[in-house]
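Holo model, copper (II) ion. Inputs:
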Amino acid sequence: MKLQTACLFLCLLVLGFNSCSKSKEPEQIRVRKNVMSLTAQEKADFVGAILKLKSTVSPYDSKYSYYDQFVRWHYLAFYCMNNMSNMQHGYPAHMGPAFLPWHRVYLDLFEKALSEVSGKQINIPYWDWTDPASLQTVFAADFMGGNGDPMQNWTVTNGAFRKGNWK
Ligand SMILES: [Cu+2]
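Output:
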């Protein structure tokens, strides 16, 4: 087994173990909706859950917020192979066959964390990036914030994740 593959399995095992180690109620079927179908309340719940995740200490590592823990895992998925001499690249969760399974587990954990901190069932919506109307729904003040101000180096200036409101 290549070292790169072994590292990837280790990452998935850690994420999977953490996901399975907590006793839980039987899970409801989760439906990921088109972002254009979300109600105003569903958008507000999603944004509120992200803000709550950002202000909650990670249960895995108290150095990080729960949100930043996901950023950290994603960072590690990029760089955990960097010191191995026989690697072709250092991106075990990207640019290879593990991309889909790794991100499936990752997003599942993120969705569960959002639901855990908010006390509501939160599902990550999907969007059609080729549809301008779909993009306008994602990059709006009531969801992810606008597209940024070109006069301020594309700084996001509205919505919950605007500059000064999101670190
Ligand atoms: Cu990724």
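The mean pLDDT is 84. The helical segments are 3-20, 40-54, 66-79, 99-118, 132-138.
Archived with the compound record.
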